[in-house]
Amino acid sequence: MEHYLDNAATTQVSQAAAEAALAAMREGFGNPSSGYALGRQAKDALNSARADVSAALGCAPDELFFTSCGTEGDNWAIHAAAAYGKRQGKHIVTSLIEHAAVLEPVKALEREGYEVTYLKPDKSGLIDSKAVEAALRPDTVLVSLMLVNNELGTLLPVRKAADAIRRIGCPALLHTDAVQGFLKVPFTPKELGADLVTISGHKIHAPKGVGALYIRKGLKLSPLLRGGGQENGLRSGTEATAQIAAFAAACREGKARLAGDIACMTALRAYAVKRLREAVPEAVVLTEGGAPHILPISLPNYKSEVLVRFLSDRGVYVSSGSACHRGKPSHVYAALGLPKQLLDGVLRVSFCGGSTEDDVNALCAALAEAKQALFPTLS
Ligand code: PLP
Fold this sequence. Notes:
12 strands; binds pyridoxal-5'-phosphate
């Protein structure tokens, strides 16, 4: 029996999403740019997928641009926003706990001469909205703050950042990496006041290889890829119709299930905290109360990689932090200033709407076993 508790890394593709992809590949396989019936059918399917994904995000279909992944959306948003503001200045505000898909393009701009203010979280991973406001300058052209941190589940003050930008009259565009927030916490780009929003399919039961960038209506950004003019000329390349169809199916399901999923995951997280306290009293819950699907914990004095392997041998899958920087200590947990014994033992448990108490019980039993089996080998 396997217990998959690493849904912030990726999710299982839902049956409906897999079926939608198969149908798009086998039946409606035309090129949406072709003028004959099969092409028009693919174009219609693409339009209806765009309508479904934009409805789940809460924006207009013409504000949604399909990408290949969240990383692509983040890179595009950051480079295009910098290019858009180049006459206004070269200052960027972001946080120390962004995903590498934001930090790396920001660092690339820094090497090109941009000045970057990295906001530091407090001990529980929260970023003070007053610090965002204090960082804004007349030459700030981009504020990029993730909606939900992928390792902590904490919510960043995106709406308050938007308010501060408008209040001060700062020219900055506001980007939010909502890869971990989409269909996990309720929001719309408009409610957040964001100009650019990144989402990704594989975190919401769609396959890998598809995502989208929201670009606020009226904002004229430079294209990511030039070529045949797909995606309204902004991201050329024959559309990934199968992945997009699956993304739309996952969005329809995710939207319909959102309230129920949030309630289930919130209850399951509370259950996990209670069971952990009973089974492994020395386990420390690092933060609780942000997005419902992420529970970061630490088993002080244990090594998280060793624990991940031990749990995996017992069919329980969790992450030792973000799967994106295997082996290296996570910059996110490091930014919290955790003591070394806590930092070493960090595990990220992450749920989906289908996770069960059974999964949590298996995790707690395996951790209790790990404590007995592994302790003598560790100092
Ligand atoms: N941003 C966040 C917050 C993420 O958690 C991830 C993936 O882990 C990404 C961006 C990158 O998304 P993708 O894997 O679709 O490139």
